[in-house]
Amino acid sequence: MPDTHRIVPGAEVDLSKISPEGKDYHSHKKAARKEFKTLRREIIELQNRLYAECRQRLLIVFQAMDAGGKDGTIRSVFRGVNPQGCRVASFKAPTRDELHHDFLWRIHAQTPASGMMQVFNRSHYEDVLVVRVDKLAPEPVWRARYEQINQFEKLLADSGTRILKFYLHISKDEQKARFQERLDDPAKHWKFSLGDLEKRKQWGEYRAAYEEAISRCSTAYAPWYVIPANQNWYRDLAVTRVIVDRLKQMNPQYPPEEPGLDLVEVE
Ligand code: AMP
Ligand code: MG
């Protein structure tokens, strides 16, 4: 069910109590893959309508620990979607220019226009995650951001943007295995940086930062979903179910045709 992993507004999230294994919810990889492929076709069809309708907007946020599967999820879930109607923005450490503005400035600039589906690979949540853990800003500054984020997302929602936020939940052991895989495969070396090992040492601090961000910023208009992500096949299915469900609720329609089309003859 699409709501299985949704964090109810006001709930206190304890990630140690949430299993990163999808098997608790779906035990058959083959069946899951099949369902995933069917749902992916639905995304393609619904996104086509969203784009044609050119009225509503969808923003999809992905956050995770390093090697949590953000890139892989984006690659598999949005495969086949019309690239004209779908954009991905990846947020890295802010540039000097970006730092001369408020933290939401660069984010706001990437929010979806009418008809668009916009994917965020990392997001404004980094400003209460890495910024908090690495003390890149004083506590009162990042503390104020939970409310600022809620207000910002409310503004987007009130302006017709639907928002979904996914935390891809992996275990520390799974991260180790994925780091090792990146080290063993030269084609994956580019994905690994020594800084990732430093962040791994701060696992507990990141977990606490995620728990607070998710607890304080899961709202009715911009819910967080904690997705068990140790297994890609479950992760992809769970994310796709939520997106399809949301798109169905949005129910985008092809715009009405111009009158008289039935009389038109193409010479
Ligand atoms: P990757 O997603 O692996 O390409 O890494 C991007 C890096 O940018 C990560 O280490 C993030 O923590 C970092 N990053 C993203 N947003 C911010 C931010 N607002 N402040 C500081 N670092 C950030
Ligand atoms: Mg990385």
Say how many strands there are: 5
Q: Main beta sheet: strand number and arrangement?
A: 5 strands, parallel
**Small-molecule binders:** adenosine monophosphate, magnesium ion
CATH class: Alpha Beta
**Average pLDDT:** 96
* CA distance, first residue to last residue: 51 Å
Write the CATH fold name: Rossmann fold
* Radius of gyration over C-alpha positions, nearest whole angstrom: 20 Å
For this structure, the quaternary state is single chain
Domain unit count: 1
Dominant shape: globular
Number of helices: 10
Give your account of this protein's structure:
- By secondary structure, the chain is an alpha/beta fold.
- 45% of the residues lie in helices and 12% in strands.
- The protein has a five-stranded parallel sheet with strand order 2-3-1-4-5, sandwiched between helices.
- Helix 1 (29-53) packs parallel to helix 10 (232-250) and helix 2 (70-77) crosses helix 10 (232-250).
- Bound molecules: adenosine monophosphate (AMP) and magnesium ion.
- Adenosine monophosphate binds at residues 91-94, 122, 126-127, 130-131, 136.
In summary, what is this structure?
This protein is α/β, with parallel strands linked by helices and 267 residues long. It has 10 helices and 5 strands.
